[in-house]
Design goal:
Elements: E1 2-7, H1 15-18, E2 27-28, E3 31-32, H2 33-42, E4 48-53, H3 57-65, H4 67-70, E5 74-76, E6 83-85, E7 95-100, H5 107-113, H6 115-118, E8 123-127, E9 130-132, H7 136-145, E10 150-155, E11 163-167, E12 170-175, E13 185-186, E14 190-192, H8 210-217, E15 221-226, E16 230-232, H9 236-247
Parallel strand pairs: 1-4, 1-8, 4-7, 10-15
Antiparallel strand pairs: 2-3, 5-6, 8-14, 9-16, 10-13, 10-14, 11-12
Length: 254
């Protein structure tokens, strides 16, 4: 299966980073979160990626154009510009398609613009700013068994603040930033049938609004309930938390 990654947004809540690079290129442990996501998918045998770029798309394009050489030793003839890779087997043997889906396109519009590159098979879809330890194979199995048009990974994020369980004016229990026990949210990590693209009207279409709302009303939107790790990177605080997990060798997605 191909994995499609939506990586074109402005990332305005992380302006301290995204004035220089698109949010998927913000680093966790020295490598872009986009690469963390792709490495995670590759654990499940995914080697074909389609990236919907937009804001500062040239940075994502250059990263992958240079990827083979910057991750290997090479010999360069400065007169001809011919490069030769020196020895070794590349650690990542992937096909990566990077498509500029426009600066102002919404999430649905970006996905629709990828139609020529997705093909007519079931594909995986996620956002370029979230990490998890969800079992992708289990999401695919559920999708097939339930005959869904789209299956979304439903998650319960950690609370931003500590939780107090009260008994009158006494604190019965104190939990420091626990995982929420109610309120499932969209965690990305979708499995999608290509005919879902027919639900998207154009560049202004927001994936999470009319298209998915219609699929849900048609009874074709399934949910894979994931109680494990999931973390989006919406703010500098989120980025620092993910970075700390990586540097302490406690990253659940690693």
């Amino acid at each position: 299966m191909k994995a499609v990654i939506l990586a074109g947004g402005f990332g305005t809540r992380m302006a301290e980073y995204t004035e220089a690079v698109p949010k998927p290129m913000v680093t966790i442990g020295g490598k872009p979160i986009l690469l963390h996501i792709m490495d995670y998918y590759s654990k499940f045998g995914v080697t074909d990626f389609v990236i919907a770029a937009g804001y500062k798309s040239e940075i994502i394009k250059k990263f992958f154009l240079d990827f083979s050489l910057t991750n290997a030793d090479f010999r360069l003839n400065t007169a001809t510009g011919i490069t030769e890779r020196l020895g070794g087997t590349p650690s990542r043997n992937w096909t990566v398609t990077v498509v500029d889906t426009g600066i102002d396109s919404m999430t649905g519009g970006r996905l629709l613009r990828l139609r020529p590159y997705i093909g007519d098979g079931t594909f995986l879809l996620t956002y370029g700013d979230g990490l998890s330890n969800v079992d992708i194979q289990n999401v695919v199995k559920a999708h097939k068994v339930e005959n869904n048009l789209v299956t979304v990974t439903a998650v319960r994020p950690a609370a931003r603040f500590g939780e107090l369980e009260l008994d009158g004016k006494k604190v019965k229990a104190f939990k420091e930033k626990p995982q929420l026990q109610q309120g499932w949210i969209n965690g990305g990590f979708f499995v999608v049938e290509p005919s879902f693209l027919d639900y998207i009207s154009g560049d202004d279409s927001v994936l999470e609004k009319a298209p998915l709302e219609k699929v849900a009303s048609d009874g074709l939107l399934g949910a894979h309930l994931h109680n494990g790790f999931w973390q989006c990177m919406d703010t500098k605080r989120d980025r620092d938390h993910l970075d700390q997990l990586w540097e302490s060798q406690q990253a659940p997605w690693a």
